[in-house]
Amino acid sequence: MLPGNRVAIHKSLEQLETFEWPAPPADATGLVKAARSLHKRPIGSLNAQELGRLIGQDIGLPWLLPIALNILRETVADQRLTGFYDDDLLTAVLTRKSNVWRSYPQLAADLKEITPLLEDTSPYIHANIQEFLTETEA
């Protein structure tokens, strides 16, 4: 079972990983500072943009990928109605390395169920989907 499936969403990654990140240096990038701040927030309070930011940096994947996939699954119908879909979160999820998907085959299967439901994706997203499908078939 994945950690994300059995943990309360009121906990932060810091609590789940049982590791407190040190304060970033004064000259740290905005991404480093934001990631540390998000690492301290309850995972259930993170929005799609924040999840995408952390997932894109391979932070907290066992807990955040299941949440991200739920968001993607729930909002795929919105794309048909509004023509909008959160490409940033989708890209962050799709572009994880193949070893991530080998470690979490059920999440890969879940994502494979979501991608055919997407319509009118940009060429970049379409390429990411094809690469994900190719990597997870191997």
Which tags fit this structure?
138 residues; mainly alpha; 8 helices; 0% strand; disordered N terminus
Describe the overall structure.
The chain is mainly α. It has one domain. Helices cover 62% and strands 0% of the residues. It has helices spanning 13-17, 30-39, 48-56, 61-82, 87-94, 98-103, 105-114, 123-137. The two termini are 23 Å apart. The model is unreliable at 1-5 (pLDDT under 50).
Task: Describe the secondary structure blueprint for this structure.
Layout: H1 13-17, H2 30-39, H3 48-56, H4 61-82, H5 87-94, H6 98-103, H7 105-114, H8 123-137
Helix pairs in contact: 3-4, 3-5, 4-7, 5-8
**Structural domain count:** 1
Q: What is the helix tally?
A: 8
Task: Enumerate the spans where pLDDT stays under 50 for 5 or more consecutive residues.
Answer: 1-5
Report the strand count: 0
Shape: globular
Instruction: Summarize model confidence as the mean pLDDT.
Output: 89
Category by helix and strand content = mainly alpha
Helicity level: 55-70%
Name the helix and strand elements from N-terminus to C-terminus, one letter apiece.
Answer: HHHHHHHH
Distance from first to last alpha carbon: 23 Å
Estimate the strand proportion: under 5%
Largest beta-sheet characterization? none
How large is the radius of gyration?
15 Å
